[in-house]
Amino acid sequence: MKFSHSLQFNAVPEWKNHYVAYDSLKRFIFEKEKARVDAANQPQDTESTNRLQEQDDLDEVFLKLLDEQLHRVIDFYDTKQAELSFRLERLADQSATCPDDAASPQSVRHAFRNTIEIEEIEKPSRSSLTVPDTLHERRSFESRLSTQTSREFVEHLVDMRAELVSLYVAYSELESFVELNKSALDKILKKYDKVLNRDVRQTFMQTQVLPSYPFLAETMKHLHHQIARTERIYAEIFCDGRKRAAQAQMRIHLREQLTYGRNTVWKDMVSQERQQHAAHVVQVAHSSPRVWRVPYTSYNVDTKLVRQMVCLIMAILLFAILASVHLFDSTPQNHCFALLVLAAVLWATEAVPLYATGFLIPVLIVPLDIMRQDDGSSMPAPDAAKHVFESMFSSTIVMLLGGFALAGALSKYGIAKAFASHVLSKAGTRPRWVLLTTMFVSLFLSMWISNVATPVLCFSLVGPILRTLADNSPVAPCLLLGIALASCIGGMTSPISSPQNIITLQYMQPSPGWGIWFAVALPISILSTFATWALLLLVYMPDRACAHLNTIKPVKDRVSTQQAIVMLVTIATIALWCAEDSMKNIFGSTGIIAAIPLFIFFGSGLLTKDDLHAFLWSVVILAQGGMALGAAVTSSGLLETIALHIKTTIQHFPTIAILAIFSLLILVVSTFVSHTVAALIIVPIVQEVGKNLPVPHANLLVMGAGLACSAGMGLPVSGYPNMSAIMLENEKGHQYLTTKDFVVAGVPVSILVCVLIFTLGYGLMSLAGY
Length: 770
What we know:
By secondary structure, the protein is mostly helical. The protein is 71% helix and 1% strand. Strands 1-2 form a two-stranded antiparallel sheet.
């Protein structure tokens, strides 16, 4: 949660005009930041020189604004503290005396205690009670007073308790008021120094803020004393001197405080999706949605829902027809082919969510009697169900979760952001070099925190540049498209850089290991990134639109113990993955190694249950559904049958031509559907074809096909980086990118990357022995 949100939610509504105007001060800082960038892009004439001269007085202007905010906080605190002290002293005096009571004029405390004693004497034994004891324990203090107590006396006690609770809440809110404003002043000074490259935070905090009365240690000590005094008075009167009971009763009335904390990148993605959904809801609420009127009725239906229903019905009809037509030699193969087409259509049209189809696949496999035993006989339903679920949880899934954990920890503790900000801070201000540096940072981060998470992090890093650009500047779409396309390319750089790579590894026997993967993927990725950079410069010409961009400020926080542990665990995990072949007798598979960071991060509390909930479980379920489908296609014999038919057509082609055919096929599917779905559907077929060639090249074709999955980037729906980029909007609610941007830049890049895969990639994989 951002601090501005924490301040907004935790502030006392009645006091909102007395807090530090954090958002206003932040807007002031960003305005001055934009003015500085604009000045740098103006010719160095007299006017611009004067403008730069005005920047020298910026500290004085900002500190004057901050001083006004500080005095507003001090004045309110002094007034409120005096008011609460007066109320507490008055209440303390009232607790020592009591208005005359017709039954027994005595002090409040003794009257209440005597009443308790009388109640205990007159209370019947436990065996004679007809109601649970808890009802007596929960009775209010008014109900325990003697029947001789006057109404005036009871009302006096009720008023005293209400006043004590009100005082306790007010003092607690005043304590929160001091802490929130102290944090607000410190954070806004930190932001000012970072954004505008100043150094006033330490001096202002030490000379102005901390010596002020509300922020003195003695003041906070006095505030705690007053809170404790209120608790003591309440305990003596209403809880028979039990202070803990008094605290428990009064704390019920406190508002829940929202804490400021760092998010993992997965939480940021969930938040981004929710914001996009909320924006869509608001847009629909304020505009006329496209509807379709049901013939001969007055019912209107959303056209999107109609399209989904039509696609779903067509998919079901197609499934029913294919399941009843004998296209293959055996019934299990016919049923499996019908299921394969059903899943492909549902994934392609998104008639239901992708992960929902993942749930549907195992539901249909067993009733359709698709699974077969080694001798070709039908597998009993219990055995089939067991086999399906075993295929859905494998080393591949644990490796996917391990990658999520590494990405979550690296982002939560600011390690990835610190690295990226330090690199980007060295890029200068020329748009072309900033673009190139940003793209290579995206490429590198995708290797370790996946290309699903990298765009979210990099988009936040270039925020200082985007907010200082002119409206409709071509630099913004150029920069964002560079991040998205570089992240797509980065999806092929390492085994954990994308879900499709993890799926590809499952079909490579033996596993290539990280060394071979790097040797093949990195040259292709680096050349592709340079080519993409050149194309973006040609299309958008950012240097003409803006000579100088705002600089990215590096994160200068000291390395914490948590950061050191996260880096150590990450490096150790990657080292074990790279040494997989030599460690196979110890760990057995990469999934066991992936479980190490999962245990350490969650076991030590570095990652919490909330962080686990924020994982992309939709991707996990999609992958599990694809694995179940792969098991069914293999067990039924359909995969071998399809592979043999394809083999008879292409077996006389050179291996490079076969790789080119499959690469182009996957490129089309991944562009219009998604990278992960393309891998789930086509990679198993590619493996079987490669195994049945006259000279088997299964690993070469599978790895090439897996790399080609990341090449599809010509549409906003082509992959997670593109989908993240298309959702970004400026401060006015206008999208930075359109479908045209992806078509103009993404399609040529996709074709180029695909060509590199079946030319350069073929050569590198051949050298690796594939």
